[in-house]
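Q: Here's a chain of 139 amino acids. Please give me its 3D structure as tokens.
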Amino acid sequence: MRRLAVLSALLLLVCAAQARADDAPDMRGVWRTVAHEGITTGSRHFPQPDMEPRFVKSEFTMEITRQEGRRFLGVKKSAKHEERIMGLVAYDNVTVHILEEEGSFHGRLLPDGSMELVYSHDSGGRQAIGIALYVRQKP
């Protein structure tokens, strides 16, 4: 009887942990870069006449407007371009994947509430890779 009670308690703990893991973090809101650096041969955010690689820095804003479970939608903006994004939070509730019109982001939510994202694209003969730290703005 005691073993059954211990087994039942363990099962409850596992189920409770799984229920918490199923609750994806709320991604909605406005996220702004506090750091960004990259290399590009050109993009909509960094247009250039040639295909020479250039080191770039910029400010970006991501506004996540809709979320259902782990999936979310929004827009990404720079001074030169705005585009739709779609993304998801992985089952570990830390890893984030985002697609935009030219490329994709892969990163993670950090313990301090910020989000580190690595961006890359290779389209139309243009390449880019960059890293950014986003912080959610207070409403």
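Q: Can you summarize the key feature?
A: The radius of gyration is 19 Å.
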